[in-house]
Design goal:
single chain; alpha/beta; 17-stranded mixed β-sheet; 3-stranded mixed β-sheet
């Protein structure tokens, strides 16, 4: 091959490795020209990372992809199989992977309840496996897994679990997520703490966590030291009593950077007890207050530590007035908070809360307002929200695919805020896409600039 051809081939290989991993797209690539096909077929690394679904083309091509991946490259595999139409799923779709188990480094599978996964249920060894993500349908009753993966770093199970936790809860793990994993419980959590000293993130959601039959003495297992020495993020959904006892017993002298507590059917007093009795001890002055919906509160202290409390139910929820009032009265939140994030959908109750305990920092308070949908600002009140020290209003969007907001919606919110007389207040459109005259636009600077009164100024970000 002439030198220029070798150079072109090297560049083409670099480009190939940046392409999406879809099997279909890989085969589209090799059909561009004979030269491209030759370079691709001689590049095992190009075929070693791939993703697919249940299409006939993918199932027929999987053996060819595996063959072209060579004999030494590590495999990174992702497959999604639909739950709504299991007739589309070949029962042996994963069978070609069995003979390559020793080379699989990451495996990410979403599959229906009726599925042949001999790959994961035959006590096979996966000596190179570092990442294992498996998701089955809720209430699928999926058979327990039986595999050995002694070098796992990331484990993510949803609605599925192993026959023997010791085969997957290994000492090398550093990222663990068990979301309604079969047979996972408080005992599993203590098992993780004992066996996984490198774990920096642990998420344990026990779906049927309505009540607890554990005695108080049981939780002394969490008093052992050292307890999860590398842990940075802990997210738990357990029975209320279990959650409180785990946090109070295991972390009474450990202040983690991030803790999320999730409960079911929580009531006002119980919510506040968990928040203040189990989540807040050890934190410094609170500087961020976020209550975007009726079921999740987030607080941050001045050191950046995060505490979240979620309530999963339909008939009980947080009340913005109660939470703000309680934290202001007992933790001086109204004197320390620098950033407040709320939803326009619950505007009225926040006006009442801030009138009782108005934020008092005069060095600049940021108000974040979520416009979930185009009409959410219509729910604001003709009453004025008064925030002494207000310096910035930012419109935030928590869901990337939210319906675009409108410039008119921004103005309706601003009309319901009484700005201070001592300064102009910045207005930031944040990461939103907006409706403006002429259609959907990313840049709303001109529309805002022309519409705002002298009390407001468009921020440099939007400009």
């Amino acid at each position: 091959m002439p030198s220029v051809d070798r150079l072109v081939a090297d560049l083409l290989r670099d480009i190939m490795l940046q392409l999406p991993s879809s099997i279909q797209q890989k085969f589209d690539f090799v059909q561009v020209s004979r030269f491209w096909r030759g370079v691709a077929l001689d590049s095992p690394l190009f075929w070693s990372s791939f993703s697919g679904d249940v299409s006939t083309m993918t199932s027929h091509r999987l053996p060819l992809v595996l063959e072209r991946s060579g004999s030494e490259t590590m495999l990174h595999i992702e497959f999604w199989f639909p739950w709504h139409d299991m007739a589309l799923v070949p029962v042996d779709a994963l069978k070609p992977l069995v003979q390559y188990a020793a080379r699989i480094e990451s495996l990410d599978l979403t599959f229906p309840s009726v599925f042949d996964v001999a790959l994961l249920q035959s006590h096979m060894d996966f000596p190179a496996l570092r990442t294992l993500r498996l998701k089955a349908p809720e209430y699928s009753g999926f058979p327990p897994l039986a595999l050995n993966a002694p070098q796992l770093r990331t484990l993510d199970f949803e609605n599925i679990g192993p026959a023997d936790w010791s085969t997957v809860l290994v000492a090398t793990l550093d990222n663990i997520r068990l979301y309604n994993a079969a047979d996972a419980s408080v005992e599993t959590l203590s098992y993780i703490f004992n066996r996984c000293p490198r774990a920096w993130r642990i998420v344990l959601y026990v779906w049927d966590s309505y009540y607890s039959d554990h005695t108080a003495d049981y939780f002394e297992v969490f008093a052992r030291r050292p307890l999860a020495p590398a842990l940075q993020e802990l997210e738990l959904r357990l029975a209320d009593e279990d959650l409180t006892r785990v946090l109070n017993t295991g972390f009474s002298d450990i202040v983690l950077p991030t803790v999320t507590a999730s409960i079911y059917n929580g009531h006002r007093d119980n919510n506040l007890d968990i928040l203040t009795g189990a989540l807040l001890p050890g934190l410094g002055p609170l500087v961020v207050f976020q209550l975007l919906g009726p079921d999740q509160i987030e607080l941050r202290d001045e050191a950046g530590r995060i505490r979240r409390l979620e309530c999963w139910n339909d008939d009980s929820s947080f009340d913005g007035l109660d939470v703000w009032k309680y934290l202001s009265r007992n933790y001086a939140l109204h004197k320390t908070v620098r950033e407040i994030r709320i939803s326009a959908a619950y505007w009225e109750r926040y006006i009442d809360a801030f009138e009782l305990y108005p934020p008092q920092r005069d060095d600049g308070i940021t108000l974040g307002v979520e416009l979930v949908e185009r009409t959410s600002a219509d729910r604001t009140s003709p009453r004025k929200m008064r925030l002494p020290g207000l310096a910035r209003v930012e419109f935030i969007r928590t869901m990337p695919d939210s319906t675009p907001a409108s410039v008119e919606g921004i103005l309706r919110v601003l009309e319901s805020v009484e700005p201070p007389t001592a300064r102009k207040v910045e207005v930031c459109a944040g990461n939103n896409t907006f409706y403006a005259p002429g259609g959907i636009t990313e840049g709303v600077f001109d529309a805002l600039k022309n519409a705002l009164s002298n009390q407001w100024v468009v921020c440099s970000h939007c400009a």
